[in-house]
Amino acid sequence: MLLVRSMTENYGRMTEFINPFNKALAFYGVSDPWNTETASGFMRPSNEIPRQPAMIGYVNSFHLLALVDGGCAARPWFMRLRTVHV
Question: Any alpha helices (H) in 1-50, and if so which ranges?
Fold first, then answer.
């Protein structure tokens, strides 16, 4: 659930900025593959856009799972502390 939600949110955010009028995408002095004035250059970011939100989604899911796992791993230690002091 978190993976899909994170992927779709980041995909939506990234696609907002891909247009030929965005000056950040105008790589002056770079050869034709990243030129947003041509059709093939404009399609190149469309190949990259699905990969980036997927990676962000996997990283977010990993962070959540690591946090939950860390809490579960610390639980026996807290239980041991409680039984020793009682």
Answer: 2-15, 39-48
Question: Which parts of the chain are beta strand (E)?
Answer: none
Q: Which residues contact 27 (CB under 8 A, 6 or more apart)?
A: 34, 35
d(CA 85, CA 77): 13
Stretch 49-67: mean pLDDT: 94
**pLDDT higher at 37 or 77:** 77
Tokens found for residue 42: 């404009």
φ/ψ of 10, rounded to 5, equals: -70, -35
